[in-house]
Request: fold
Amino acid sequence: MSRKTVLVSGGAGYIGSHVTVELDAAGYDVLIADNFSNCDRTNYNGVCQITGKQLPLVEMDFCDTAAVRRLFDEHQIDAVIHFAAFKAVGESVADPLKYYCNNLESFLNILQVSREKGCNVLFSSSATVYGEPEHLPVSETSERKPCTSPYGNTKQICEDFLRDCVNAYPQIKGIALRYFNPIGAHPSALIGELPRGVPQNLVPFITQTAAGKRECLSVFGNDYDTPDGTCLRDYIDIVDLAKAHVCAVGRMLENKMKTSYEIFNVGTGRPLSVLELITTFEKVNNLKLNYKIAPRRPGDVTAVWCDPSYAEKELGWKAVRSTEETLASAWAWEKRLLGE
Ligand code: WQD
Reply:
């Protein structure tokens, strides 16, 4: 079988870099494209070190229609995985046009050229599309709820773009993966999450607090209707999550899809509270975290976790890394950034 080429837009970012490593290990040729607007070269360098290859990298902006067309003209691309997007929920509320312009235009460009070239498209969606679910765990057929942020809205809209395009244009197929809460780092500690400024997400805030970069972690609310009063989430290991992409790309390229547009939840199926996550982090890394209970954060849902059985049945994928391993990897990565 000839080798297939997968384009990874945003391949130098947190999720994109881990996916690139797993695609390479699975025997795909990977083409990375990134404009480095939201990351530096740390993860790209780490990917090259892990794979032992100077992987091809194109510096470009997916909002630049001509550049996207040029990329597809110059390379034979069998599938594209699209990560290149802004992802800060709060910022999207403050500056919706930044999110609508960037996240929608870039994806429209990819769809347009994929249609012309007959290229398969994998879209990185999010559990945010389920909003505050009425029934838990959520499955792929659970209702999507109106999103509370422009960021979440872009995920819903891009899912719809993809669904409508694959329905209309038989030469392309599409998969949307709905991630729950991706956390952790590669076991090598050569790639990981690199938040800019003050981290908005829980695990980078925890590791930075443990590292002394932040004084105290605020636990946003302990009066939710949950066993310990803090929110419940489905925290999915980043390497497990990356492997789901390899399974999904294989399914597209080997013509194993049941319909031309498919959706899969990518999570563990295990709910974990904020306090449980903190306690596990302390235990596995043998340290004490400075934290306090703070008011609820506006926009947070009480609980969301998935039923991952459809992905297991159809993709042959399931999460295998334990929360302990994942939180150890997150701390190893933070320590590496500290130069230890
Ligand atoms: C998890 C839990 C917080 C920070 C968001 C996006 C989602 C996806 C992932 C990606 C919540 C609590 C957090 C802190 C805390 N987007 N928390 N103190 O909100 O579930 O999902 O990130 O790009 O689309 O919505 O993740 O990590 O921010 O929060 O107590 O300092 O941790 O209240 O219960 P969230 P999160």
User: Anything to note?
Assistant: The two ends are 44 Å apart (CA to CA). The mean pLDDT is 97.
